[in-house]
Amino acid sequence: MKALKKTISFRILAILATVGVAWGITGNYQLGATIGVAQGAVNSVLYYTHEKAWELDDANLKQEMIKIKRKEDSKKIPREWKEHGVDL
Questions:
Q1: Alpha-carbon distances, residue 37 vs 54, 55, 61, 72 (angstroms)
Q2: Is residue 88 part of a domain?
Q3: According to the model, what pLDDT value does residue 75 have?
Q4: pLDDT of residue 63
Q5: What is the count of structural domains for the chain?
Q6: What is the pLDDT of residues 56-67, one digit of tens each?
Q7: Which of 64, 50, 70, 58 is nearest to 3 (CA)?
Q8: Residue 77 forms part of a structural domain
Q9: Which phi and psi angles does 36 have, rounded to 5°?
Q10: Is the N end or the C end of the chain the one with fewer CB atoms within 10 Å?
């Protein structure tokens, strides 16, 4: 949810900046607004997707760390327990 809030707040600022620049270059506020909104929509999707990809990467890293920890812990199980099918 934080990623979505960040996306929205940043995008509002970026759209306003793009509208201003496009309006300044073209001299046409309607064209500037069209460019700003179009650019904002595309970049919002890209930014949100990028944020979620990083979150997924973090989640995958945590899962791998848990797997490694379990493997390390399983080495600490007495051999006799393992022979009888005991697993943590």
A1: 26, 27, 36, 53
A2: no
A3: 62
A4: 73
A5: 1
A6: 777 777 777 776
A7: 50
A8: yes
A9: -60, -45
A10: N
All residues at 6 or more sequence positions from 24 whose CB lies less than 8 Å from its CB, including other chains = 32
Please name the amino acid found at residue 45.
V
What tokens were used for 59?
A: 């989640």
64 lies in some domain: yes
pLDDT in tens, 4-49: 898 788 889 989 999 999 999 999 999 999 999 999 889 888 888 8
Residue 24, CB-side half-sphere exposure with 13 Å CA sphere:
6
Structure tokens at 82: 């393992």
C-alpha–C-alpha distance, residues 20 and 40, integer Å: 13
pLDDT of residue 56: 77
pLDDT, position 71: 67
